Amino acid sequence: MGELTDKAKGIANEVAGKAKQQSGDPATRAEGHAQERKGEAQNLTGKVKGAFGDKV
């Protein structure tokens, strides 16, 4: 179950981050970039958990 949860949260953060990067405000764009990277890390964590059977 942890694998799917991490992947879902990761995808949500990636999408939200990409949306924020479209802003005209530099601070919001930077926040969006960071959020997208966080989402990518969460997605990777989910993949690792899947490979190890959620024992991570």
How would you briefly describe this protein structure?
With 56 residues, the chain is an all-alpha fold. Helices cover 80% and strands 0% of the residues.
Q: Which features does this protein show?
A:
56 residues, mainly alpha, single chain
List the topology elements.
Layout: H1 2-20, H2 26-51
Helix pairs in contact: 1-2
Calculate the terminal CA-CA distance, rounded to whole Å: 12 Å
State Rg: 13 Å
Question: Helix proportion of residues, in percent?
Answer: over 70%
Regions with little confidence, pLDDT below 50 for 5+ residues: none
Write the H/E string, N to C: HH
Average pLDDT reading: 91
**Strand residue content:** under 5%
How many β strands by DSSP?
0
Kindly name the structural category: mainly alpha
Number of helices: 2
Specify the biggest β-sheet: none
